[in-house]
Design goal:
With about 280 residues, the chain is α/β, with parallel strands linked by helices. It has three domains: about 55 residues, Nucleic acid-binding proteins (OB fold (Dihydrolipoamide Acetyltransferase, E2P), Beta Barrel), CATH 2.40.50.140; about 140 residues, Rossmann fold (3-Layer(aba) Sandwich), CATH 3.40.50; about 55 residues, Ribonucleotide Reductase Protein R1, domain 1, CATH 1.10.40.50. Helices cover about 30% and strands about 25% of the residues. Strands 1, 2, 3, 4, 5, 6, 7, 8, 9, 10 and 11 form an eleven-stranded mixed β-sheet that branches. Strand 6, helix 2 and strand 7 form a beta-alpha-beta unit. Helix 2 packs across helix 10. The longest helix is centred in the middle third of the chain and has 16 residues. Bound molecules: guanosine-5'-diphosphate, magnesium ion (MG) and zinc ion. The site of magnesium ion has 3 residues, from helix 5.
Length: about 280
């Protein structure tokens, strides 16, 4: 039978197939092959003997949370306490894009901003929409509920950004502790190896927030460049085919930054990422 792993505690994997769950063990052969079945994996399993027989090829995988076949990452982006960091947001977008995961940006804590601060942040919010991203505010509950259907999602963002709060609002049965520092530091209830996909609005959400691939070190400068989606719109108009949009002359990206079409902070963050 084929199913999806929705929960993993040590070596017990809960596999869902045809609306039924089976608690299966993984086989020694996976250890030899250095494959660890992950939550989110599509697997072939023996429903009688309760063994996972095979892990089907993955679309992608993350280490934290340990989940495979992730469709989208909800980037929980606080605008105050903790303050808005375009650097962190662009870094997350780059990493998520590189892992072939769709980024969805969700701004939080807009209620804490003054009128002036709101006016400053609004063009930034609009910019990310303009370049093609799905952008929400955490108060857009009705729209947010629609994004989960048939997808595997992870939540990511700084501690205190409002991840748990939003999850609780999306599903009032969850009762996830908010503002819980011991949880945030990885102590407390997540000391044992336990990952679970929560069923939210007909989709699956990893219960452990996070995105471990926080370092851009493993990406080459051109790989970083290619994750900046709006650059790709104009790159054919650069003089050099492999333009890094940095020191080259006749670079359309730099032109679009000076005329305000490309958000300056995006470009500045890009330069920081490739210079490392
Ligand atoms: N004012 C305000 N506070 C929020 C908002 N979202 C979350 N919080 C508060 O921010 C704190 C941290 O939220 P939490 O969900 O625990 O953040 P997490 O670390 O990302 O899971 C809590 O005290 C929440 O009540 C928001 O949109 N506005
Ligand atoms: Mg939390
Ligand atoms: Zn260029």
């Amino acid at each position: 039978m084929q199913g999806i792993i929705i929960k993993c505690i040590s070596n017990d994997y809960t596999v869902l197939a045809n609306d039924r769950t089976y608690i299966c063990k993984s086989r020694g052969k996976f250890r030899k092959l250095k494959i660890t079945p992950l939550v989110g994996d599509q697997v072939l399993f023996d429903s009688e003997q309760k063994y996972i027989l095979d892990v089907l090829p993955r679309k992608n995988e993350l280490v934290r949370p340990p989940v495979a076949n992730i469709n989208q990452a909800i980037l929980i982006t606080s605008v105050k306490h903790p303050h808005f960091s375009s650097h962190l947001l662009d870094k997350l977008i780059t990493m998520v894009e590189f892992n072939r995961i769709t980024p969805i940006i969700c701004f939080t804590k807009l209620d804490l901003l003054s009128e002036t601060e709101l006016q400053e942040i609004e063009p930034i919010i609009q910019y990310y929409k303009k370049i093609g991203y799905q952008v929400y505010k955490n108060t857009d509950l009705k729209q947010l509920k629609k994004i989960f259907e048939h997808k595997i999602s992870v939540f990511t963002g700084q501690t205190g950004a409002g991840k748990s709060t939003l999850l609780n609002h999306l599903d009032t049965n969850l009762n996830i502790k908010t503002n819980d520092i011991s949880y945030a530091l990885g102590r407390g209830k997540h000391t044992t190896r336990h990952t679970e996909l929560l069923h939210i609005e007909n989709g699956w959400v990893a219960d452990t927030p996070g995105f471990s691939a926080l370092s851009l070190d493993e990406l080459s400068p051109s790989e970083i460049r290619d994750q900046f989606v709006e650059f790709n719109t104009y790159r054919d108009l650069c003089k050099y085919k492999d333009c890094m949009h940095h020191k080259e002359d006749h670079c359309m990206i730099k032109e679009k930054v000076s005329d305000g079409t490309i958000l300056k902070s995006r470009y500045e963050n890009y330069l920081k990422f490739i210079e490392k």
